[in-house]
Amino acid sequence: MQRVSFIIVAPSYNERVGGVLVLHKLCDLINDLGYTAYIWRKDRWPFLRAIRGSGLVVSLLQIFKNLMRAIRGKSKFLLNHALNTPLANTQNLHGNFITIYPETVDANPLYCKNIVRWFLYKPNFHSPKARYGTDELLFHYQDVFLEEWLKEKESSKFSIVYLMTDIYKQTNFGSRQGSCHIIRKGKHKKLNYHDRDSIKIDNLSHAQMAKVFNQVEFCISYDMYTMLTSYAVLCGCKVIIVPEKGMTVEQWQPVERLRYGLAYGEENLPWAEKTKHLVIESLQRAEERNIDSTKQFIERCISHFNLS
Protein backbone atom coordinates (compact mmCIF):
# COMPACT_ATOMS: atom_id res chain seq x y z
CA MET A 1 0.00 0.00 0.00
CA GLN A 2 1.20 3.51 -0.84
CA ARG A 3 2.51 5.45 2.16
CA VAL A 4 0.18 8.12 3.49
CA SER A 5 1.01 11.72 2.66
CA PHE A 6 -0.34 14.95 4.14
CA ILE A 7 -1.47 18.09 2.32
CA ILE A 8 -1.45 21.08 4.68
CA VAL A 9 -3.40 24.07 3.43
CA ALA A 10 -1.66 27.24 4.59
CA PRO A 11 -1.18 30.90 3.70
CA SER A 12 2.16 32.29 2.58
CA TYR A 13 4.79 32.13 5.34
CA ASN A 14 4.45 35.13 7.63
CA GLU A 15 6.58 35.33 10.78
CA ARG A 16 4.09 37.69 12.42
CA VAL A 17 1.11 35.28 12.31
CA GLY A 18 1.22 32.45 14.85
CA GLY A 19 -1.30 30.24 13.03
CA VAL A 20 0.70 30.41 9.81
CA LEU A 21 3.92 29.57 11.68
CA VAL A 22 2.54 26.38 13.21
CA LEU A 23 0.99 25.18 9.92
CA HIS A 24 4.37 25.42 8.21
CA LYS A 25 6.08 23.93 11.27
CA LEU A 26 3.69 20.96 11.22
CA CYS A 27 4.69 20.22 7.62
CA ASP A 28 8.34 20.31 8.66
CA LEU A 29 7.75 17.99 11.64
CA ILE A 30 5.81 15.41 9.62
CA ASN A 31 8.60 15.29 7.03
CA ASP A 32 11.22 14.99 9.78
CA LEU A 33 9.34 11.96 11.13
CA GLY A 34 9.75 10.13 7.82
CA TYR A 35 6.33 10.78 6.34
CA THR A 36 5.58 13.00 3.35
CA ALA A 37 3.93 16.37 3.80
CA TYR A 38 3.34 19.32 1.48
CA ILE A 39 2.07 22.85 1.78
CA TRP A 40 -0.86 23.72 -0.47
CA ARG A 41 -1.26 27.44 -1.17
CA LYS A 42 -4.39 28.68 0.59
CA ASP A 43 -5.04 31.11 -2.27
CA ARG A 44 -4.92 28.53 -5.07
CA TRP A 45 -7.63 25.94 -5.72
CA PRO A 46 -8.03 23.62 -8.75
CA PHE A 47 -11.15 25.15 -10.25
CA LEU A 48 -13.18 21.99 -10.91
CA ARG A 49 -12.32 20.52 -7.52
CA ALA A 50 -13.20 23.82 -5.82
CA ILE A 51 -16.61 23.94 -7.52
CA ARG A 52 -17.41 20.43 -6.32
CA GLY A 53 -16.03 21.00 -2.81
CA SER A 54 -17.02 24.62 -2.08
CA GLY A 55 -19.48 25.72 -4.76
CA LEU A 56 -19.32 27.93 -7.88
CA VAL A 57 -19.76 31.28 -6.11
CA VAL A 58 -16.94 30.67 -3.63
CA SER A 59 -14.66 29.43 -6.42
CA LEU A 60 -15.30 32.45 -8.63
CA LEU A 61 -14.76 34.76 -5.66
CA GLN A 62 -11.36 33.18 -5.05
CA ILE A 63 -10.39 33.73 -8.68
CA PHE A 64 -11.36 37.39 -8.34
CA LYS A 65 -9.32 37.74 -5.12
CA ASN A 66 -6.29 36.16 -6.79
CA LEU A 67 -6.63 38.56 -9.74
CA MET A 68 -6.71 41.53 -7.37
CA ARG A 69 -3.67 40.21 -5.49
CA ALA A 70 -1.78 39.86 -8.78
CA ILE A 71 -2.70 43.41 -9.80
CA ARG A 72 -1.43 44.69 -6.43
CA GLY A 73 1.75 42.65 -6.78
CA LYS A 74 0.96 40.44 -3.78
CA SER A 75 0.67 37.05 -5.45
CA LYS A 76 4.11 35.78 -4.39
CA PHE A 77 3.98 32.82 -1.99
CA LEU A 78 6.69 32.73 0.66
CA LEU A 79 8.28 29.74 2.40
CA ASN A 80 10.75 29.52 5.26
CA HIS A 81 13.68 27.68 3.70
CA ALA A 82 14.90 26.61 7.13
CA LEU A 83 11.84 24.33 7.22
CA ASN A 84 11.12 21.27 5.09
CA THR A 85 7.95 22.56 3.43
CA PRO A 86 7.68 21.58 -0.25
CA LEU A 87 4.77 22.99 -2.21
CA ALA A 88 2.09 20.59 -3.42
CA ASN A 89 0.60 20.45 -6.88
CA THR A 90 -2.36 18.60 -8.38
CA GLN A 91 -0.25 15.45 -8.89
CA ASN A 92 -0.09 15.15 -5.10
CA LEU A 93 -3.89 14.97 -4.89
CA HIS A 94 -3.97 11.27 -5.72
CA GLY A 95 -3.54 8.09 -3.71
CA ASN A 96 -3.57 7.88 0.08
CA PHE A 97 -3.42 11.42 1.37
CA ILE A 98 -4.92 13.41 4.20
CA THR A 99 -5.78 17.07 3.85
CA ILE A 100 -5.37 19.40 6.83
CA TYR A 101 -7.47 22.55 6.71
CA PRO A 102 -7.21 25.32 9.31
CA GLU A 103 -10.50 26.70 10.60
CA THR A 104 -10.23 29.69 8.21
CA VAL A 105 -10.80 27.57 5.09
CA ASP A 106 -14.38 27.35 3.86
CA ALA A 107 -15.79 23.89 3.12
CA ASN A 108 -13.58 21.54 1.08
CA PRO A 109 -12.05 23.43 -1.87
CA LEU A 110 -9.61 20.60 -2.71
CA TYR A 111 -12.56 18.19 -2.83
CA CYS A 112 -10.71 15.63 -0.71
CA LYS A 113 -12.01 12.55 1.01
CA ASN A 114 -9.90 12.44 4.17
CA ILE A 115 -10.17 15.80 5.91
CA VAL A 116 -8.64 17.01 9.16
CA ARG A 117 -9.83 20.36 10.50
CA TRP A 118 -7.38 22.04 12.86
CA PHE A 119 -8.92 24.86 14.89
CA LEU A 120 -6.01 27.17 15.61
CA TYR A 121 -8.47 29.66 17.09
CA LYS A 122 -12.18 29.88 17.79
CA PRO A 123 -14.46 28.62 14.99
CA ASN A 124 -15.60 31.33 12.55
CA PHE A 125 -13.71 34.13 14.35
CA HIS A 126 -11.48 34.97 11.40
CA SER A 127 -13.82 33.58 8.72
CA PRO A 128 -17.43 34.02 9.89
CA LYS A 129 -18.88 32.26 6.83
CA ALA A 130 -16.54 29.26 6.84
CA ARG A 131 -18.39 25.94 6.64
CA TYR A 132 -17.12 22.73 8.21
CA GLY A 133 -17.96 19.23 7.02
CA THR A 134 -19.78 16.64 9.10
CA ASP A 135 -17.22 13.87 8.48
CA GLU A 136 -14.07 15.81 9.31
CA LEU A 137 -11.59 14.68 11.97
CA LEU A 138 -11.36 17.62 14.38
CA PHE A 139 -8.45 18.98 16.40
CA HIS A 140 -8.12 22.19 18.42
CA TYR A 141 -5.03 24.10 19.53
CA GLN A 142 -6.23 25.07 23.01
CA ASP A 143 -9.17 23.93 25.12
CA VAL A 144 -10.30 27.54 25.53
CA PHE A 145 -11.12 27.57 21.79
CA LEU A 146 -13.65 24.76 22.19
CA GLU A 147 -17.31 25.46 21.56
CA GLU A 148 -20.02 23.08 22.67
CA TRP A 149 -20.47 21.53 19.22
CA LEU A 150 -16.74 20.80 19.05
CA LYS A 151 -16.95 19.02 22.38
CA GLU A 152 -19.88 16.97 21.09
CA LYS A 153 -17.85 16.08 17.99
CA GLU A 154 -15.03 14.92 20.32
CA SER A 155 -12.40 17.28 18.98
CA SER A 156 -8.89 16.37 20.19
CA LYS A 157 -6.29 18.80 21.46
CA PHE A 158 -3.20 19.12 19.28
CA SER A 159 -0.66 21.90 19.68
CA ILE A 160 2.92 22.43 18.62
CA VAL A 161 5.22 25.26 19.60
CA TYR A 162 7.44 27.34 17.34
CA LEU A 163 9.83 29.18 19.66
CA MET A 164 11.97 32.20 18.82
CA THR A 165 14.00 32.37 22.01
CA ASP A 166 17.06 33.33 19.99
CA ILE A 167 15.32 36.65 19.32
CA TYR A 168 13.20 37.11 22.42
CA LYS A 169 15.46 37.36 25.46
CA GLN A 170 16.12 39.99 28.08
CA THR A 171 19.03 42.28 27.24
CA ASN A 172 18.01 45.28 29.35
CA PHE A 173 18.39 44.66 33.08
CA GLY A 174 18.38 48.37 33.93
CA SER A 175 15.72 51.05 33.94
CA ARG A 176 12.63 50.93 31.75
CA GLN A 177 9.89 53.38 30.93
CA GLY A 178 6.64 53.55 29.03
CA SER A 179 4.55 50.80 27.52
CA CYS A 180 3.69 49.00 24.31
CA HIS A 181 0.44 47.38 23.30
CA ILE A 182 -0.83 44.49 21.17
CA ILE A 183 -4.23 44.65 19.43
CA ARG A 184 -4.40 41.84 16.84
CA LYS A 185 -7.36 39.54 17.74
CA GLY A 186 -8.51 42.02 20.39
CA LYS A 187 -9.63 44.64 17.88
CA HIS A 188 -13.28 44.22 18.95
CA LYS A 189 -12.51 45.62 22.42
CA LYS A 190 -12.47 49.23 23.55
CA LEU A 191 -8.88 50.25 22.93
CA ASN A 192 -8.59 52.53 25.93
CA TYR A 193 -6.36 50.54 28.29
CA HIS A 194 -3.01 51.84 27.02
CA ASP A 195 -1.47 55.31 27.32
CA ARG A 196 -1.41 57.75 24.44
CA ASP A 197 2.32 57.38 23.92
CA SER A 198 2.21 53.57 24.07
CA ILE A 199 3.98 51.82 21.16
CA LYS A 200 1.75 49.63 18.98
CA ILE A 201 3.78 46.57 17.94
CA ASP A 202 1.32 44.68 15.74
CA ASN A 203 3.10 45.31 12.43
CA LEU A 204 6.69 45.24 13.65
CA SER A 205 9.19 42.51 12.82
CA HIS A 206 10.19 40.07 15.56
CA ALA A 207 13.54 41.81 15.97
CA GLN A 208 11.79 45.17 16.33
CA MET A 209 9.31 43.73 18.85
CA ALA A 210 12.13 42.28 20.96
CA LYS A 211 13.81 45.68 20.98
CA VAL A 212 10.61 47.37 22.19
CA PHE A 213 9.98 44.66 24.80
CA ASN A 214 13.44 45.38 26.22
CA GLN A 215 12.76 49.10 26.30
CA VAL A 216 9.35 49.44 27.97
CA GLU A 217 8.12 48.49 31.44
CA PHE A 218 4.61 47.33 30.51
CA CYS A 219 3.08 45.41 27.64
CA ILE A 220 -0.71 45.73 27.33
CA SER A 221 -2.39 43.03 25.23
CA TYR A 222 -5.96 43.28 23.96
CA ASP A 223 -5.38 39.90 22.30
CA MET A 224 -5.83 37.31 25.05
CA TYR A 225 -4.24 34.44 23.12
CA THR A 226 -0.96 35.32 21.44
CA MET A 227 2.54 33.95 21.93
CA LEU A 228 3.80 37.54 21.84
CA THR A 229 2.75 38.05 25.46
CA SER A 230 5.03 35.24 26.60
CA TYR A 231 7.81 36.66 24.46
CA ALA A 232 7.30 40.01 26.17
CA VAL A 233 7.76 38.29 29.54
CA LEU A 234 11.01 36.70 28.33
CA CYS A 235 12.26 40.19 27.47
CA GLY A 236 11.48 41.50 30.97
CA CYS A 237 8.12 43.21 30.44
CA LYS A 238 5.27 43.28 32.91
CA VAL A 239 2.44 41.93 30.80
CA ILE A 240 -1.22 42.81 31.34
CA ILE A 241 -3.96 40.99 29.43
CA VAL A 242 -6.98 43.27 28.99
CA PRO A 243 -9.84 41.24 30.52
CA GLU A 244 -13.01 40.28 28.72
CA LYS A 245 -16.07 41.55 30.56
CA GLY A 246 -17.64 38.83 32.68
CA MET A 247 -14.79 36.36 32.11
CA THR A 248 -12.83 35.08 35.11
CA VAL A 249 -9.12 34.26 35.13
CA GLU A 250 -9.88 30.53 35.00
CA GLN A 251 -12.33 30.98 32.14
CA TRP A 252 -9.75 32.99 30.21
CA GLN A 253 -7.06 30.35 30.68
CA PRO A 254 -7.80 27.24 32.77
CA VAL A 255 -4.27 25.85 32.31
CA GLU A 256 -2.08 27.47 34.96
CA ARG A 257 1.25 27.03 33.17
CA LEU A 258 -0.14 29.02 30.23
CA ARG A 259 -0.81 31.90 32.62
CA TYR A 260 2.75 32.13 33.95
CA GLY A 261 4.05 35.69 33.81
CA LEU A 262 0.75 37.09 32.52
CA ALA A 263 -1.52 39.37 34.54
CA TYR A 264 -5.19 39.02 33.63
CA GLY A 265 -6.06 42.58 34.60
CA GLU A 266 -3.75 44.90 36.50
CA GLU A 267 -4.79 43.44 39.86
CA ASN A 268 -3.03 40.17 38.97
CA LEU A 269 0.39 41.74 38.40
CA PRO A 270 1.86 40.40 41.68
CA TRP A 271 1.05 36.79 40.65
CA ALA A 272 2.47 37.39 37.17
CA GLU A 273 5.71 38.77 38.62
CA LYS A 274 5.96 35.81 41.00
CA THR A 275 5.63 33.26 38.17
CA LYS A 276 7.50 34.95 35.31
CA HIS A 277 10.67 32.93 35.95
CA LEU A 278 8.72 29.77 35.06
CA VAL A 279 7.86 30.91 31.52
CA ILE A 280 11.05 29.90 29.70
CA GLU A 281 11.08 26.36 31.13
CA SER A 282 7.38 25.89 30.39
CA LEU A 283 7.86 26.97 26.75
CA GLN A 284 10.93 24.78 26.27
CA ARG A 285 9.11 21.73 27.64
CA ALA A 286 6.22 22.42 25.28
CA GLU A 287 8.62 22.59 22.34
CA GLU A 288 10.24 19.31 23.42
CA ARG A 289 6.81 17.68 23.20
CA ASN A 290 6.46 18.66 19.50
CA ILE A 291 7.78 15.34 18.18
CA ASP A 292 5.66 13.12 20.44
CA SER A 293 2.56 15.25 19.88
CA THR A 294 3.00 15.10 16.11
CA LYS A 295 3.55 11.33 16.19
CA GLN A 296 0.28 10.89 18.08
CA PHE A 297 -1.46 13.25 15.66
CA ILE A 298 -0.24 11.26 12.64
CA GLU A 299 -1.23 7.93 14.18
CA ARG A 300 -4.69 9.22 15.03
CA CYS A 301 -5.24 10.53 11.50
CA ILE A 302 -4.07 7.30 9.81
CA SER A 303 -6.14 5.13 12.15
CA HIS A 304 -9.28 7.27 11.81
CA PHE A 305 -9.24 7.14 8.01
CA ASN A 306 -8.18 3.48 7.99
CA LEU A 307 -5.11 4.17 5.84
CA SER A 308 -2.58 2.07 7.74
Our count of domains comes out at 2
CATH class annotation of the largest domain = Alpha Beta
Structural class: alpha/beta
The counted number of beta strands is 11
First-last Cα distance: 8 Å
Order of helices and strands: EHEHHEEEHEEEHEHEHEHHH
For the CA atoms, what is the radius of gyration? 20 Å
Please state roughly what percent of the residues sit in beta strands, choosing from under 5%, 5-15%, 15-25%, 25-35%, 35-45% or over 45%.
5-15%
- The CATH architecture name of the largest domain reads 3-Layer(aba) Sandwich
Poorly predicted runs are none
Assembly state of the chains shown: single chain
Principal-axis shape: globular
Percentage of residues in helical conformation: 25-40%
- Mean of pLDDT: 91
CATH topology of the largest domain: Rossmann fold
Main sheet overview: 6 strands, parallel
Strand ordering within the main sheet: 2-1-3-4-5-6
- What is the tally of helical segments? 10
